[in-house]
Amino acid sequence: MTAKRDDYDSKAYNPEFERHFLSPKYWGTWLGVILFLPLALMPLSAQKWLAKTIAKKLSKSHKGPAHRARVNFELCFPRKTFQEREALIEKTLYTAAMFFFRFGLLSLRSPQWLQSRCQIRGLDVLRQHIDNNENVILMVPHSWAIDVPAILLASMGMPVSAMAKKQKNDVADWLMHKQRVQYGGRVYERSGGIKPFLKSIRDGYIGYYLPDQDHGPEHSVFVDFFATRKATLPGLGKIAKLSRSKVLPLFASMNTEDGTFDIEILPAFDLDKGEEQDARTCNEAIEYFVGDKPEQYMWVLQLLHSQEDGNNYYNLFKPRYNSDWKVQ
Question: Does the keyword Transmembrane feature in the UniProt annotation (predicted)?
């Protein structure tokens, strides 16, 4: 895995810079990039102040990210008081803002800088599988720092292979891709199917699998997730079997006090007990990772959009948050 390799694959997603990226349509995007760079280079104390200000304001909103997090927290943590959940929304948005401000440093700084600011627990477990010439899939929940381990491992000579959906904004899509594969690795578009992804794992790339997006009831099984039920993708066991891989759960979090990253890798777990039990096993790993640091998880996503009873709680709960529950 440490030998120099050619990461090009004609079936992988390989966007190139195009002249139309400079058209007026994307001037706003480029302006955002220009403004984004000074934010990344600001002193940590200034980033903390700005992140706290933004999080405090956004957390009071009855719409958008705060609303989605509010619904998710009520369903997943019903034993927490309303005030506790509101405080957690602000803490989650603060963590998100801090990561957003420092995300650009992953490209602006050297790989040595990144490696010095990451603490990895369980790296020996991953290395042992690699040294034994075993294929590996990392099961990576949606934390704010989700991209960090892939970039870090590639900088250490262990490139990953992932599947992603193309962004609507071509410039943003190109920039994100350049950052993700700056030290090597491959990204495949979901629309191209799973076979190229499986082949890349068999070729020695570390698979990067995101288990927790809601892809609709037709592609999911409903299993327990904290105090509720979640539409969960059931196919990781099959993917592991087809790629002849070991599956290792991984979670990345950001220390908002000093701006460093913590990465935890767990030993491989078995996924051969049927779709529902395998899906539940994945959710149990998420519960373990998120339990004592919920602010690190992307609760602003519509994680619980699909429901067994057909309800859309993000719409259903709007009236109660706007009238019955006043946010102070």
Answer: yes
- Rounded to an integer, what distance in angstroms lies between the CA atom of residue 281 and that of residue 6? 35
Dump pLDDT digits (tens) for 207-217. Answer: 999 999 898 99
Range of the domain at 145: 19-324
Segment 124-147 shows an average pLDDT of: 98
Asked if pLDDT for residue 293 goes beyond 50, the answer is: yes
Structural domain includes residue 11: no
Residue 13 included in any domain: no
For residue 81, pLDDT beyond 50: yes
Q: In the beta sheet, which residues pair with residue 137? A: 207, 247
Cα(82)–Cα(110) distance, integer angstroms: 43
Domain count, the chain: 1
Alpha helices in 103-161 (DSSP H): 105-108, 111-116, 123-131, 148-155
